[in-house]
Amino acid sequence: MNSRYYTPAIPDGWFQVAYSDELKPGEVLPLAYFGGSLVLFRSESGEASVLDAFCPHLGAHLGYGGKVEGNCIRCPFHAWKFDRAGQCTEVPYAQKIPPKAKIKPWVVRELAGLISSGITPAARHRSGTCRRFPSTDIPTGPTTSAGAGRSARATKRWPKTR
Ligand code: FES
User: Is residue 44 part of a domain?
Assistant: First the structure.
Protein backbone atom coordinates (compact mmCIF):
# COMPACT_ATOMS: atom_id res chain seq x y z
CA MET A 1 0.00 0.00 0.00
CA ASN A 2 1.24 3.49 -0.82
CA SER A 3 1.68 5.31 2.52
CA ARG A 4 1.13 8.67 0.82
CA TYR A 5 -2.53 7.83 0.39
CA TYR A 6 -2.97 5.91 3.61
CA THR A 7 -6.41 6.39 5.11
CA PRO A 8 -6.78 5.01 8.64
CA ALA A 9 -9.70 2.70 9.31
CA ILE A 10 -10.55 4.85 12.32
CA PRO A 11 -9.97 8.58 11.79
CA ASP A 12 -8.19 10.75 14.31
CA GLY A 13 -10.53 12.35 16.76
CA TRP A 14 -12.65 12.06 19.82
CA PHE A 15 -15.64 9.73 19.80
CA GLN A 16 -18.31 9.63 22.44
CA VAL A 17 -18.32 6.23 24.14
CA ALA A 18 -20.76 6.92 27.00
CA TYR A 19 -22.70 9.57 28.83
CA SER A 20 -21.22 10.69 32.15
CA ASP A 21 -24.35 9.79 34.08
CA GLU A 22 -24.17 6.19 32.85
CA LEU A 23 -21.05 5.59 34.93
CA LYS A 24 -21.01 6.20 38.67
CA PRO A 25 -17.79 5.98 40.71
CA GLY A 26 -16.82 2.32 41.08
CA GLU A 27 -18.82 1.15 38.06
CA VAL A 28 -17.58 -0.79 35.03
CA LEU A 29 -19.03 -0.85 31.48
CA PRO A 30 -18.05 -3.14 28.60
CA LEU A 31 -17.66 -1.25 25.30
CA ALA A 32 -17.21 -2.15 21.63
CA TYR A 33 -15.43 0.71 19.83
CA PHE A 34 -12.53 1.23 17.43
CA GLY A 35 -12.81 -2.28 16.09
CA GLY A 36 -12.31 -3.99 19.43
CA SER A 37 -13.57 -4.69 22.91
CA LEU A 38 -12.87 -2.13 25.60
CA VAL A 39 -13.67 -1.62 29.25
CA LEU A 40 -14.73 1.72 30.69
CA PHE A 41 -14.53 2.21 34.43
CA ARG A 42 -14.75 5.10 36.85
CA SER A 43 -12.34 5.11 39.77
CA GLU A 44 -13.62 5.67 43.29
CA SER A 45 -12.22 9.22 43.07
CA GLY A 46 -14.29 9.83 39.93
CA GLU A 47 -11.95 9.64 36.92
CA ALA A 48 -13.12 7.68 33.88
CA SER A 49 -10.66 5.33 32.17
CA VAL A 50 -10.76 3.17 29.06
CA LEU A 51 -8.58 0.10 28.58
CA ASP A 52 -8.55 -2.77 26.11
CA ALA A 53 -10.98 -5.28 27.56
CA PHE A 54 -8.94 -8.46 27.77
CA CYS A 55 -6.69 -9.34 30.67
CA PRO A 56 -3.11 -10.16 29.62
CA HIS A 57 -3.08 -13.16 31.97
CA LEU A 58 -5.65 -15.54 30.50
CA GLY A 59 -7.89 -13.22 28.55
CA ALA A 60 -10.86 -12.51 30.80
CA HIS A 61 -13.05 -9.60 29.71
CA LEU A 62 -12.69 -6.96 32.42
CA GLY A 63 -16.02 -5.41 31.45
CA TYR A 64 -17.91 -8.42 32.79
CA GLY A 65 -17.24 -8.88 36.48
CA GLY A 66 -14.25 -6.54 36.78
CA LYS A 67 -14.26 -4.66 40.09
CA VAL A 68 -13.00 -1.13 40.74
CA GLU A 69 -10.68 -0.71 43.71
CA GLY A 70 -9.43 2.81 44.28
CA ASN A 71 -8.02 3.95 40.93
CA CYS A 72 -7.63 0.40 39.62
CA ILE A 73 -9.71 -2.39 38.13
CA ARG A 74 -9.41 -5.98 39.32
CA CYS A 75 -9.81 -8.90 36.92
CA PRO A 76 -12.74 -11.22 37.74
CA PHE A 77 -10.76 -14.44 37.05
CA HIS A 78 -7.56 -14.44 39.10
CA ALA A 79 -7.75 -10.95 40.62
CA TRP A 80 -4.82 -9.26 38.91
CA LYS A 81 -5.13 -5.53 39.43
CA PHE A 82 -4.51 -2.85 36.76
CA ASP A 83 -4.21 0.90 37.17
CA ARG A 84 -5.74 3.58 34.93
CA ALA A 85 -2.71 3.42 32.61
CA GLY A 86 -3.23 -0.33 32.17
CA GLN A 87 -0.17 -1.33 34.19
CA CYS A 88 -0.54 -4.39 36.42
CA THR A 89 0.00 -3.27 40.00
CA GLU A 90 -0.77 -6.47 41.92
CA VAL A 91 -0.83 -10.21 41.42
CA PRO A 92 -2.38 -11.54 44.63
CA TYR A 93 -0.53 -14.87 44.80
CA ALA A 94 2.86 -13.76 43.49
CA GLN A 95 5.81 -11.68 44.68
CA LYS A 96 6.74 -10.43 41.23
CA ILE A 97 4.63 -8.69 38.59
CA PRO A 98 5.30 -10.02 35.08
CA PRO A 99 6.92 -7.25 33.00
CA LYS A 100 4.48 -7.69 30.12
CA ALA A 101 1.41 -7.57 32.33
CA LYS A 102 -0.02 -4.41 30.80
CA ILE A 103 -3.24 -3.54 29.03
CA LYS A 104 -3.42 -0.92 26.29
CA PRO A 105 -4.91 2.31 27.64
CA TRP A 106 -7.00 4.71 25.56
CA VAL A 107 -7.16 8.46 25.94
CA VAL A 108 -10.26 9.72 27.74
CA ARG A 109 -11.83 13.15 28.01
CA GLU A 110 -14.98 13.91 29.93
CA LEU A 111 -16.68 17.11 28.92
CA ALA A 112 -20.23 18.44 28.99
CA GLY A 113 -21.69 15.15 30.19
CA LEU A 114 -19.96 13.05 27.53
CA ILE A 115 -17.16 10.54 27.99
CA SER A 116 -15.05 10.45 24.83
CA SER A 117 -12.11 8.40 23.70
CA GLY A 118 -10.07 8.33 20.52
CA ILE A 119 -6.92 7.52 18.64
CA THR A 120 -3.73 8.75 20.29
CA PRO A 121 -1.00 10.60 18.42
CA ALA A 122 1.47 8.06 19.84
CA ALA A 123 -0.32 5.27 18.03
CA ARG A 124 -0.24 7.27 14.81
CA HIS A 125 3.48 7.96 15.28
CA ARG A 126 4.11 4.23 15.64
CA SER A 127 2.28 3.56 12.40
CA GLY A 128 3.87 6.59 10.69
CA THR A 129 0.56 8.30 9.99
CA CYS A 130 0.43 10.94 12.73
CA ARG A 131 -1.71 14.00 12.17
CA ARG A 132 -2.79 16.82 14.42
CA PHE A 133 -4.90 15.58 17.33
CA PRO A 134 -8.07 17.58 17.87
CA SER A 135 -8.18 19.92 20.81
CA THR A 136 -10.73 19.53 23.57
CA ASP A 137 -10.68 23.20 24.47
CA ILE A 138 -14.08 24.78 24.68
CA PRO A 139 -14.15 28.02 22.72
CA THR A 140 -14.75 31.05 24.88
CA GLY A 141 -16.14 34.40 23.87
CA PRO A 142 -19.61 35.38 22.72
CA THR A 143 -21.11 32.00 23.60
CA THR A 144 -20.32 32.58 27.28
CA SER A 145 -22.47 35.70 27.30
CA ALA A 146 -25.62 33.78 26.40
CA GLY A 147 -27.02 34.34 29.87
CA ALA A 148 -26.31 38.04 29.61
CA GLY A 149 -28.15 38.16 26.28
CA ARG A 150 -31.13 36.44 27.84
CA SER A 151 -31.33 38.93 30.70
CA ALA A 152 -30.90 41.85 28.27
CA ARG A 153 -33.83 40.47 26.28
CA ALA A 154 -35.92 40.11 29.45
CA THR A 155 -35.31 43.70 30.47
CA LYS A 156 -35.89 45.18 27.03
CA ARG A 157 -38.63 47.76 27.11
CA TRP A 158 -41.00 48.05 24.18
CA PRO A 159 -42.15 51.55 23.25
CA LYS A 160 -45.63 52.42 24.35
CA THR A 161 -48.06 52.64 21.44
CA ARG A 162 -50.64 54.83 23.19
S1 FES B 1 -7.44 -13.79 33.44
FE2 FES B 1 -7.23 -11.90 34.46
S3 FES B 1 -6.09 -12.41 36.20
FE4 FES B 1 -6.26 -14.30 35.17
Answer: yes
**Number of domains composing the chain:** 1
Residue nearest to atom 1 of ligand 1 (CA): 58
Q: Over the stretch 35-49, which tens digit does the pLDDT of each residue have? A: 899 999 999 999 999
Can you give the pTM of this predicted structure?
0.74
Nearest CA to ligand 1 atom 4: 78
Within a domain: 105: yes
Residue 91 lies in a domain: yes
Q: How far is CA 58 from CA 35, 51, 77, 120, in A?
A: 21, 16, 8, 26
